[in-house]
Every structure is written in structure tokens, then in C-alpha cells.
Specification:
Oligomer: homodimer
CATH architecture of the largest domain in chain A: Up-down Bundle
CATH topology of the largest domain in chain A: Dehydroquinate synthase-like, alpha domain
Number of domains of chain A: 2
Radius of gyration of chain A: 20 Å
Largest interface: A-B, 39 and 39 residues
CATH class of the largest domain in chain A: Mainly Alpha
Structural class of chain A: alpha/beta
Helix content of chain A: 40-55%
Order of helices and strands of chain A: EHEHHEHEHHEEEEHHHHHHHH
Number of helices of chain A: 14
Chain lengths: 379, 379
């Protein structure tokens, strides 16, 4: 087992009605808040009004930044940080899914500095302090609500990258499963695929900690139990709650304790599909992970077999991969590139960007030939 | 799933050599430290000297309180708090197992007040602030290193009770598996029994959260894999590390998320065996839990069967209980009262105190007749 420091400072407020406790929770931070959200679905669902009521109850002066994109842009982060800086906001309230909360994390460390947000991603600058961040999650998927990571896209450099700092943990996160009732079937499925992919990334990471691997298997098993139930009952509280909690635990650092972090090769490759062809993040992962496992059969066969044994009572690698493909198909997340309209004529450009952006992973490093084989398996 | 707030502020420093990072970690707290430890085994092992070297490196002025008992006494807590108060210590460094760290938690909230520590246990007073607590764990068992609970014994009232406050989390805990090499076989086994018992208490608690139950099962499985390996190799790093991490995760609040807390009836009963007959805590639990399960077959049969299925691939309740008895016997923790010298002539006094101290549990409430049957099963 590798040495590790376990610390997660986020307070996770989970359950029915927790939105109504936001007001009293944010009050101690001060009066000026930067409210960050996306493209207006929070207004349609009525969540926006409930949040505003809570902020009014807390006596807040509200500055807003809306319009964060599903694949969030670093330019928006810089614009929002300027608003926060000029108005000397006391805290940030981010209402949305991974894209909004990830953006808000980087806004929170960009407000106190003079340079652009992307400087953090290029390690030209280190964050020294952060404006406190409170998050309200509307989509179960990325785990951003209880971790220090943020993925942003930079159209200028043609990159989509992850960044992490201990300063980027939300101070409070509010997770009411009822808020996710309005997430449509496709994005519900992509969220499930995303959380399972996070489990895979850490499972196939470097290092050896049997308890972390057992926790990972527990989360996958839970998501595979509740996922199909949820797809049959999008307004089911127990179903939404189970998947929402699964997603949080799938990427809140716990599953990599005693290991040296995850592999993240498939995430790197998935980001390329999103960048070039706008594939939803979770969809890119349900396509690429089974293909990656097929390639990795020789190198990671023992690990895949263990997963098969623990989840399905069968150590056969091919059968295990087939089970995952079946599962993704059952919930409605694609497993072939053709399902998202990516034909073989697009492969060379995709592979070129995988090479350029080093989508190789950290444990089972991928070569150009590997990318080619994975694309072939995934076609 | 019940609503919950998940927050654990402790920083857990886990692994080989982490003791050598204590100095730089404690420095920011100030210069005056109250060093709390037990009966001198930390001096024999050389750990005391390593800690003193770290404190000297941090430029600390050291006030000491030693002699915390294995079943820690509230009187010692009051005495230590007086030393801390009179010398205006900036932080507490507790070096030991559950008894020392539990005592230090209550010392940390007693220093700032004028009343005795037991007032917290009788809910006559609420803690308002705490002196920061740093812990160095020497025994894998109770999980105190990453939770807000403390069990103390009061000889005057004849009670052994648990208390918890969010102020009682250690700020930092240092867990070096090598430090536990010198724990003798019997206490190593009792620690394993204790951590598995914590899993049971939460598993059989009120409420329903499939992921928490899966995490619990994962920890039990891990301890049942590594426990016998450790008993065969008391100086094995991987074995010590696995059990140490299992013990932390078994009671750091995570396993009760989405549930309404554990049952804790068996712990209540176990405390009576310790109070009246000095039975080691873990030993009391390996004796009483199988007996409790035999009684609870009718009321909790489905839960026991699920545990049997997930751990042993067999839903038979009797077979599941037999497996646990075999396991405890294999590692050297007792499963019969006769093994710790408690004959049937002692039963009435024990049962009387179980009734008086309300050792009934919170989910499957035990009656006097139940205590009697459990003692009979455990004899």
C-alpha cells in the first residue's frame, strides 16, 4: 500500500429538501455572492427561484454569471472571475452539473489573482487562496461536488484538461436527488457511465490497496444495480439518490487511497472525442472503456478477471467486457463510435490529437498503435 | 436513503515514516503542547523518543500527562485537562490507542471549560470549543483516529459510555503501520474483532443505504482476508497496513451515511463485560456478536443472510454465524464467556447492569429476556 494523506474538507448535504438549508449555510460567508450557472435549465426547473429565495433570506447581494457551456470554456471562467474580482464577492454559489461547478472552482482561485485561468492549467501559476465555493448539484456524474478537480476546454490551444488543487474543494455541496428528476434519459445514462468510468480509472491505476479496490467494486455493483432501475423510473427518489451518492463516492479521492492515482488514459481519449465531435463526456467513456479493456486484456487481464469474479462470479475477461457493454447498452449509453456518428474516415484526425494531447494514461501507457487498436475495437 | 451531512475534517497521514513529518505539521498550532500517553509502552518501543525529537524540532514546550488506562477513566481526563488549562497549551498530541486518543478528545473540550468532563457524558454541558488535537495511533482497532467519538469509564457512576461531538475529530492523525509491529498477538486479534464489530453495528443499524452496506461488506471482507495473514506475520508491513486502514474506515462515519446510525447494542453489552470483569473490548465483541446474531435470527435473518451471501456465497444464517465464530477463533479472539473466565454464576449481575445501563441497542432493542438468551448463547 502506498503512503497517502486522506483529507476531504467538503461538507456534503445530501437528501430531500436540503436546498432549503442553503440560506443559513451561506450566511456566515458574507453578503456578496457570485451566482454561477449554465444555460437556463435551472430557471425552467424552478430551482433558480428556490435558490434566489434562499439568498434573499441570507440577505445576499447577488452578482450573476450565466451561460457556462456543457464543455466549459476557460474564457467564461476569466469573464466570471472579473465580475467576482471587481465586485469583491465573499463567496461563489455554483448551481449546475460538472461543467458549472468545475468552472466555479477555477473562478474561485482566479478571482484573487491577476493572470488568466489557463495559467493554472499550464502550471505557470499556483493558486494561493480561493474564494469559498458552495455548490448545488443538478446532475449526478462527475463527482466534482466533493473533489478538488476541474476540467476545462481551451479552444485556442485545442486542449481539454483536468486541474486539481486542495483549494478547489467546495466548502459545502448540496445534493437533493429530487433536483435531478428533470435530467433527461440520455444524460442520466451518461452520468451513470461517467461514474462507472471513474471507478475503472482508479481500479486500473498504479499501486495496490485491496480495500480501495473493494470500495471501487462496491460502487460499480451499486451503480449496476440501481442504474437500470433508474432508467425505468426517472422520477424515483431511491433510484436518483443511489446513483447520485454513487457518483460522489466514485471520485472523491477515497478510491485512490493507498494507490498512486488512477490511469486516466480513457478519459484523455474521451476528451478528444468531445473536443472534435462534441460527444457527451459519459458517452465517450462507455464507447472507449470496453475497447480499452479489449486492448488491455494482455497487460491487465488479471485485474479485469478479478473484477469479473467479484461482480459477475466469472473470471473470463471477454465475458466481463461483454457484461459492461451489455450494461451500457441497457441504460442507453453508446458502446460504438458509429452510434455517435463517428466513421472510420475521422479516425486519423482523432488519433493525431490523442498523440498531441498525450491521452496515454499513467499506468498502462498507450502508444500510437494502441490508439489505433482501441479505435478499431470501438468502431 | 435517509438524509445525511457527510463531513470529516481529519487529515489522515498514512504510511511508512509519517511519524517524521509530525514536527512540521504541529508547528503552526503554537509552541505549548500537552503530550498524552499511556503506561509507558511508547517509551519501550522507542516511539516516545521519536515524538520528542519531532516536538523539539518544532520548538515545542512540552507538558506531559501519562498513565491513561486501557479502559480510560474520566478522572484522568479531568487531571490532564487541568494541566492543559493551567499551562495554556496550544494543542494536544495524543500517542496511543483508542483509550489515549479518546481521553485526549475529551481533554481537548474540557480544557476550555470549568466543569468536569463527565458533565458532557450526562449532557449537562455542551462543548463550545476545543484545543486542536493531533493523534499518533499505536493500535489498529477503534477508528478513533478519524471520528468524533470517545468512550470513557466512570467508576463513581459505574458506567462506560460513548460521547461524540464534531469538535472531537482529531485535526491530524498519524498512522504508521510499522508502529503497530509491537502490538502483541492477543491485542492484534482484539483490534480485528473490534473493527469487524463496528462494521456489524452499522450494518444492523436503522435505515437503508445499499452503498453503505456494500462498503461495510467490503471492509469485513478485507479484514477477513488480511486478519489471518497478519496473525501469521505480526511484522508484515502489508498486513499491518491493511488492518490499520480497515479499522479507520470501519468507524469514520462513512458506513452510516444514508442510514440512521448503528445499532450499538452489542457494544453496550460488551462495555458491561469490561466494566465488571475487565474483558478486553474487542474480546467482548467477538464473544457477544455471534450470540447476538443467533438471537436476532428471527428479527434480522434477512440481513444476516445477505451478509452470508455477499461474504461467503451462502445465505444460510447458521452457516454465516458459524463462519464468523470460526474466523474469530482462527485469529485468537474468544467466542465464549468461559474463555475469559466468566461462568454462569456471574450472569445475573451482568444482566442487572445491562438493564441498568440500557445496553439495549437502538434498532433491534433488546429486552431482559434477550440479554438472558444472548448470555446463554455466549456461555
Amino acid at each position: 500500500m502506498d503512503n497517502f494523506i486522506a483529507n476531504n474538507p467538503t461538507s456534503l448535504h445530501f437528501g430531500k429538501g436540503v436546498i432549503e438549508t442553503i440560506g443559513k449555510t451561506v450566511k456566515p460567508f458574507g453578503s456578496k455572492v457570485l451566482l454561477v450557472y449554465g444555460k437556463g435549465s435551472v430557471k425552467k426547473s424552478g430551482l433558480y427561484d428556490r435558490i434566489i429565495a434562499q439568498l434573499n433570506e441570507a440577505g445576499a447581494t447577488i452578482f450573476e454569471f450565466d451561460g457556462i457551456q456543457p464543455n466549459p470554456l476557460v474564457g467564461d471562467v476569466d469573464k466570471a472571475a472579473t465580475i467576482g474580482r471587481e465586485n469583491k464577492v465573499d463567496y461563489i454559489l455554483a448551481v449546475g452539473g460538472g461543467s458549472v461547478i468545475d468552472s466555479a472552482k477555477i473562478i474561485s482561485i482566479t478571482i484573487p489573482v491577476e493572470h488568466t485561468a489557463w495559467d493554472f492549467y499550464e502550471y505557470k501559476a499556483k493558486p494561493l487562496t480561493a474564494v469559498p465555493l458552495v455548490a448545488v448539484l443538478t446532475l449526478a456524474a462527475t463527482g466534482t461536488e466533493m473533489n478538488p478537480f476541474a476540467v476545462l476546454q481551451n479552444p485556442v490551444t485545442g486542449r481539454k484538461d483536468g486541474y486539481g488543487s486542495p483549494l478547489c474543494f467546495p466548502v459545502h455541496s448540496f445534493l437533493d436527488p429530487e433536483v435531478t428528476y428533470t435530467v433527461p434519459a440520455d444524460y442520466t445514462a451518461y452520468g451513470i457511465a461517467d461514474l462507472i468510468a471513474h471507478c475503472f480509472e482508479n481500479y486500473f491505476g498504479k499501486g495496490d490497496c485491496s480495500l480501495s479496490d473493494r470500495f471501487i467494486t462496491a460502487i460499480i455493483a451499486d451503480a449496476m444495480e440501481w442504474g437500470p432501475k433508474l432508467m425505468n423510473n426517472l422520477h424515483g427518489y431511491d433510484e436518483r439518490a443511489a446513483i447520485m451518492y454513487d457518483a460522489t463516492m466514485a471520485l472523491n479521492l477515497m478510491t485512490s487511497h493507498g494507490k498512486s492515482g488512477g490511469d486516466w488514459g480513457v478519459h484523455g481519449m474521451g476528451h478528444i472525442l468531445s473536443l472534435l465531435h462534441g460527444v457527451a463526456h459519459g458517452a465517450s467513456l462507455s464507447i472507449l472503456f470496453p475497447a480499452w479493456m479489449k486492448l488491455l486484456n494482455e497487460r491487465a487481464g488479471k485485474q479485469i478477471a478479478k473484477l469479473g469474479t467479484d461482480l459477475f462470479g466469472n473470471p473470463d475477461v471477454d465475458a466481463t467486457i461483454a457484461k459492461f457493454e451489455e450494461f451500457f447498452t441497457q441504460i442507453g449509453s453508446p458502446v460504438h463510435l458509429s452510434q455517435v456518428g463517428i466513421g472510420e474516415d475521422k479516425f486519423e484526425e482523432i488519433i493525431r490529437l490523442m498523440i498531441r494531447n498525450k491521452a496515454e494514461g499513467s499506468n498502462y501507457k498507450l502508444s500510437e498503435a494502441d490508439y489505433r487498436k482501441i479505435m478499431e475495437f470501438a468502431k
